[in-house]
């Protein structure tokens, strides 16, 4: 599988993960900072949350891990949670801002 196709599958899966408090997926919210496809299709995901004290942080990270791990050809997944830089509403897609009434 080409890296471009794998990246598309990863993005498609990330768009199915939602913050339970916000009706927008984590991709459109801008919570995914980087997707790295490493040797042997080991996937690294750098992401954040809307708030450091997010009560469902573990659930979101677990869901990301499981959904990426289930993509055919993926050998391993490393989800790295960071709060640097801190998330702001400016990181959301135009679509997410529109849906949440920020535009």
Automatic annotation (TrEMBL):
It comes from the Bacteria. Residues 7-79 form the MIP18 family-like domain. Pfam families: FeS_assembly_P. This is FeS assembly SUF system protein.
């Amino acid at each position: 599988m080409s890296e471009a196709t794998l990246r598309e599958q990863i993005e498609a899966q990330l768009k199915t993960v939602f913050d339970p408090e916000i009706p927008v997926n984590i991709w459109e919210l801008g919570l995914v900072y980087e997707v790295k496809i490493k040797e042997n299709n080991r996937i690294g995901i750098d992401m954040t949350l809307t708030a450091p004290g997010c009560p469902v942080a573990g659930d979101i990270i677990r869901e990301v891990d499981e959904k990426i791990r289930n993509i055919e050809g993926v050998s391993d997944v490393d989800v790295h949670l960071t709060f640097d830089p801190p998330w702001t509403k400016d990181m959301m897609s135009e679509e997410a801002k529109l849906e949440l009434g920020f535009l």
